[in-house]
């Protein structure tokens, strides 16, 4: 009985060590599996081998796992089929918005059990130079993938297409402890490795309510309210409607900025790529727009014309709206939505609003043209031409003008007894 008890204890310990492997599921149907294992010796010393497993259906062209806060700076483990029943592991370095390039890392290698078979490609990786990881704490990771035809290339520098989607998340490697530094992903572990549950994942950007709210609000502001509010002036000629709509957009914009800054700081993205940099510049420049609008309104109310400040207000706002729409596209790209329904919806809405706004600009220019023509016509009636003035003078001082008693000057008229005016003899 005692022997059985000891065996049961050992079995329980083995189960605990197996279940301690951190895991994360991603992909179109959570069908991509990532696992981490940190040997106890490495965790204690703070350095040593770290084990990774990337497991995905062969309907994906490639899958990747990277150490870092974003794809642009991550140290990436890229896996694709080699065309001969196995997988190729390509260690690459993220480089801003261009495709990651291969970087030789001799201490990173595939271990036994890696394969492309039974409808899946599995890469078991031993990383001997992951020294920048906190082996007992939290670390940022990024995962990406692309569905499609197999790469079927044994070279580590194979060309790949852009990712379909990606995830940024945090793994607590203290939950990835394993007892041995050998055969860390054995066949006996496959039932646990194939589990659909996540373990050791602290946070993930998937379905982030902050990111989603930021995207919806900023799209509503720059693609909807700002351009629609701007075309209220030429269509309805109501200053109050224009100012009220733009004020609403201005307030919502700063709410969206606050959400964006909060999320980018949580994921360490703030100020590190074009979307956050350009977005910050646009909203700061828009801070001057309400002041320019007020000065333009005062000038127009007094002079009934668009002055220099008015033209600056109009074209300055149009330029910033365009930059805001472009930056929205960069935001979708940063969120991993380089294609698909989100980009299509954004493009359709932005194009529709742009066409409507372009029509309003044409209407405004035509209205200004008609106003100038009308002012010119009224101006011509108020100030007679020199020729008309000369003709009037000639008619007034022509001798025939005085043949009519009604035209005789008052000094040449006298009064009869019946108080009627007569000529005094001239």
UniProtKB/TrEMBL annotation:
SMART domains: B561. Keywords: Electron transport, Membrane, Signal, Transmembrane, Transmembrane helix, Transport. It is found in: Membrane. Residues 213-332 form the Cytochrome b561 domain. It holds the Pfam family CDH-cyt. The chain crosses the membrane at residues 212-235, 247-264, 276-295, 315-336, 342-365. It comes from the Eukaryota. Residues 412-426 have a biased composition (Basic and acidic residues). The keyword GTP-binding does not apply. GO terms for cellular component: membrane. Residues 1-20 form the signal peptide. InterPro entries: Cellobiose_DH-like_cyt, Cyt_b561/ferric_Rdtase_TM, DUF2427. Residues 398-426 are annotated as: Disordered. This is Cytochrome b561 domain-containing protein. It comes from Clonostachys byssicola.
């Amino acid at each position: 009985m005692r022997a059985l008890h000891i065996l049961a204890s050992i079995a329980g310990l083995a189960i605990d060590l197996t279940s301690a492997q951190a895991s994360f599921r991603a992909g179109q149907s959570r069908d991509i599996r990532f696992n981490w294992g940190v040997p106890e010796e490495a965790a204690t010393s703070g350095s040593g081998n770290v084990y990774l497993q990337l497991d995905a259906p062969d309907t994906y062209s490639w899958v990747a796992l990277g150490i870092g806060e974003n794809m642009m700076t991550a140290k990436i483990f890229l896996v694709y089929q080699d065309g001969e029943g196995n997988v190729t592991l390509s260690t690459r370095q993220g480089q801003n918005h261009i495709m990651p390039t291969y970087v030789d890392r001799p201490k990173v290698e595939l271990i036994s059990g890696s394969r492309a078979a039974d409808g899946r490609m599995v890469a078991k990786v031993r990383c001997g130079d992951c020294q920048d990881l906190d082996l007992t704490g939290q670390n940022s990771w990024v995962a990406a993938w692309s569905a499609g035809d197999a790469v079927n290339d044994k070279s580590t520098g194979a060309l790949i297409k852009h990712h379909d989607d990606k995830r940024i998340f945090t793994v607590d490697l203290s939950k990835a402890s394993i007892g041995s530094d050998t055969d860390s992903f054995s066949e006996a572990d496959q039932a646990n490795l194939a589990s659909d549950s996540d373990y050791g994942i602290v946070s993930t950007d998937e379905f982030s309510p902050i990111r989603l709210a930021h995207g919806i609000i900023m799209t509503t502001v720059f693609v909807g309210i700002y351009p629609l509010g701007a075309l209220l002036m030429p269509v309805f000629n109501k200053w109050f409607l224009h100012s009220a709509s733009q004020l609403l957009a201005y307030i919502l914009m700063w709410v969206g900025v606050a959400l964006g800054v909060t999320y980018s700081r949580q994921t360490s993205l703030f100020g590190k790529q074009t979307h956050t940099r350009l977005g910050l510049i646009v909203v700061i420049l828009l801070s001057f727009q309400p002041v320019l609008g007020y000065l333009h309104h005062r000038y127009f109310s007094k002079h009934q014309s668009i002055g220099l400040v008015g033209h600056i207000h109009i074209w300055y706002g149009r330029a910033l709206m365009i930059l805001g729409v472009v930056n929205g596209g960069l935001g979708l790209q940063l969120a991993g939505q380089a294609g698909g329904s989100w980009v299509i919806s954004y493009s359709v809405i932005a194009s529709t609003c742009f066409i409507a706004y372009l029509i309003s600009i044409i209407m405004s220019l035509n209205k200004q043209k008609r106003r100038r023509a009308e002012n010119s016509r009224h101006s011509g009636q108020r100030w007679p031409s020199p020729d008309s003035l000369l003709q009037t003078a000639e008619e007034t001082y022509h001798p025939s003008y005085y043949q009519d008693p009604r035209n005789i000057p008052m000094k040449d008229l006298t009064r009869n007894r019946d108080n009627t005016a007569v000529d005094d003899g001239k």
